[in-house]
């Protein structure tokens, strides 16, 4: 608080610091109140999120096995786990292509289908829209485990719906076909499963953005002869671009770390080494092979890959100037 000069009779002016009032003290304490209110939530997040993350990073620098779990001792090996992983051809020829290609197809399919459903919902009357949204959300509310077993039943070798349709039309013999042994057909089923489970979230989120776009803009563009695609490209997409950023980033994070939809499929638990992704490979190395350090290193690599992809996507979508 600034001092003020007070003239004194018979002498020079004396600098006196004014006594702080109750209002000024409240103003000084005001910036601390949000931090005090957020402190309990930040403490819980630090315990539940930050500590496990730090623990996984520390494990990735150790040769940590079941013996270390029993003894409690730590055997730090530096970057040895990362060096072995990056030199493993299995990572570059099987696991990483499975993870990246699957995520690209799943994210693209989820966003495109969700956007199309959102545009359909926008054109419906309020009552019809509510009914359709309720039906669509059933797929999103279904647990991933339940949805995976439904798709396993659909493509069952002997009794699946796909087998009955193809056998009834003469395209498939009585011996059937195992769709889960081939790498391409395996992930085609996983993509269908993930897109079916994820598109309702995209549809509802994009619909909320579509309802905020003024109808006068579309009406003016329609009078100027703009097609539906042109109106979507030049009016709708720029107006709700942040919404597409959110759903794309969230879908990317979810699809890169897909676990249940791969692990529960026939062969996905490790019996078919050609269909593993980073999430399942980390689990198998950690718990099936009891190499927790290697499994943690795989998890850290997956996290770093997700962060890099998210940053690149944000820069491409918004531009480097808007992210500063």
TrEMBL record:
<feature type="transmembrane region" description="Helical">
    <location>
        <begin position="35"/>
        <end position="54"/>
    </location>
</feature>
<protein>
    <submittedName>
        <fullName>Sugar ABC transporter permease</fullName>
    </submittedName>
</protein>
<dbReference type="GO" id="GO:0005886">
    <property type="term" value="C:plasma membrane"/>
</dbReference>
<feature type="region of interest" description="Disordered">
    <location>
        <begin position="1"/>
        <end position="25"/>
    </location>
</feature>
<comment type="similarity">
    <text>Belongs to the binding-protein-dependent transport system permease family.</text>
</comment>
<dbReference type="InterPro" id="IPR035906">
    <property type="entry name" value="MetI-like_sf"/>
</dbReference>
<keyword id="KW-1003">Cell membrane</keyword>
<feature type="transmembrane region" description="Helical">
    <location>
        <begin position="90"/>
        <end position="119"/>
    </location>
</feature>
<feature type="transmembrane region" description="Helical">
    <location>
        <begin position="234"/>
        <end position="254"/>
    </location>
</feature>
<feature type="transmembrane region" description="Helical">
    <location>
        <begin position="131"/>
        <end position="154"/>
    </location>
</feature>
<feature type="domain" description="ABC transmembrane type-1">
    <location>
        <begin position="96"/>
        <end position="313"/>
    </location>
</feature>
<feature type="transmembrane region" description="Helical">
    <location>
        <begin position="296"/>
        <end position="318"/>
    </location>
</feature>
<keyword id="KW-0472">Membrane</keyword>
<dbReference type="GO" id="GO:0055085">
    <property type="term" value="P:transmembrane transport"/>
</dbReference>
<keyword id="KW-0813">Transport</keyword>
<keyword id="KW-0812">Transmembrane</keyword>
<feature type="transmembrane region" description="Helical">
    <location>
        <begin position="186"/>
        <end position="213"/>
    </location>
</feature>
<dbReference type="Pfam" id="PF00528">
    <property type="entry name" value="BPD_transp_1"/>
</dbReference>
<keyword id="KW-1133">Transmembrane helix</keyword>
<dbReference type="InterPro" id="IPR000515">
    <property type="entry name" value="MetI-like"/>
</dbReference>
């Amino acid at each position: 608080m600034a001092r003020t000069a007070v003239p004194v009779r018979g002498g020079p002016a004396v600098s006196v610091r004014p006594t702080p009032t109750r209002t000024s003290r409240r103003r000084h304490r005001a910036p601390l109140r949000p931090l005090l209110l957020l402190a309990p939530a930040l403490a819980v997040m630090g315990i539940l999120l930050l500590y496990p993350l730090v623990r996984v990073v520390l494990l990735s620098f150790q040769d940590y096995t079941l013996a270390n779990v029993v003894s409690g001792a730590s055997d730090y090996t530096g970057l040895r786990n990362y060096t072995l992983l990056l030199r493993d051809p299995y990572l570059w020829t099987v696991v990483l292509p499975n993870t990246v290609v699957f995520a690209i197809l799943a994210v693209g399919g989820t966003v495109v289908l969700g956007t199309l459903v959102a545009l359909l919902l926008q054109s419906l009357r309020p009552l019809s829209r509510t009914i359709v949204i309720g039906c669509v959300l059933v797929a999103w509310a279904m647990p991933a485990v339940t949805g995976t077993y439904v798709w396993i039943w659909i493509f069952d070798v002997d009794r699946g719906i796909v087998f009955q349709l193809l056998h009834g039309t003469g395209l498939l013999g009585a011996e059937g076909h195992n769709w889960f042994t081939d790498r391409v057909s395996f992930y085609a089923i996983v993509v269908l499963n993930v897109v079916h489970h994820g598109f309702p979230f995209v549809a509802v989120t994009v619909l909320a953005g579509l309802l905020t776009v003024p109808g006068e803009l579309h009406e003016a563009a329609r009078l100027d002869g703009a097609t539906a695609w042109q109106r979507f490209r030049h009016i709708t997409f720029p107006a709700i671009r942040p919404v597409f950023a959110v759903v794309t980033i969230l879908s990317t994070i979810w699809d890169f770390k897909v676990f249940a939809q791969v692990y529960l499929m026939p062969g996905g638990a490790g019996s078919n080494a050609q269909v593993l992704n980073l999430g399942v490979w980390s689990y198998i190395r950690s718990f099936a092979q009891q190499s927790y350090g290697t499994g943690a290193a795989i998890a850290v690599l997956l996290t770093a890959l997700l962060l890099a992809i998210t940053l690149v996507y944000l820069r491409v979508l918004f531009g480097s100037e808007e992210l500063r």
